[in-house]
Specification:
two-stranded antiparallel sheet, 147 residues, extended, Phage_T4_Gp19, mainly beta, 8-stranded antiparallel sheet
């Protein structure tokens, strides 16, 4: 690993790619999570004692949210249009989020399979405001792996 003892990766060091193409001007990524279902097994022992055990279930699907600076690119909105038209094969993509260290080397990568975009949202636009316009989109995925 690229980090020394007692060092952590900075929260600002990451890249987002969809089908191998880096998404430009990403500001924030949220929802990086790997999760499995929990199964509760309730039993009665031979001596009458009530016991609850927790078992590991199947991996869960999930979603990540990406916020980026608004540009003239229509890639994400065209992707949503493909989803809305029902083109399942065309809508499914792969995505990844790579966490970087201070040197820009990859520390950990979250890979997502069978992704499709669920929503695209532009932030509030205010007359006279000094903040940038952003585009936030939610990507749903079926499987995730951490490398």
């Amino acid at each position: 690993m690229a980090l020394e003892d007692f060092d952590n990766a900075p929260a600002y060091g990451f890249t987002v790619t969809v089908d191998g193409i880096e998404v430009p001007r990403v500001i924030e990524v949220s929802g990086l999570k790997s999760e499995v279902d929990k199964i509760e097994l309730k039993q009665q022992t031979q001596d009458g004692k009530y016991v609850v055990r927790q078992l590991m279930g199947r991996p869960k699907a999930g979603e990540i949210t990406v916020t980026r600076g608004l540009t003239d690119s229509k890639t994400v909105t065209d992707w949503l249009k493909t989803v809305m038209e029902g083109d399942v094969a065309g809508a499914r993509k792969t995505a990844s989020v790579a966490l970087l260290d201070y040197k820009g080397e990859t520390v950990k990568t979250y890979n997502f399979d069978h992704c499709w975009v669920r929503s695209v949202e532009v932030n509030s636009l205010k007359a006279g405001a000094t903040e940038q316009a952003t585009e936030k989109f939610v990507i749903c995925y079926d499987e995730s792996k951490v490398e």
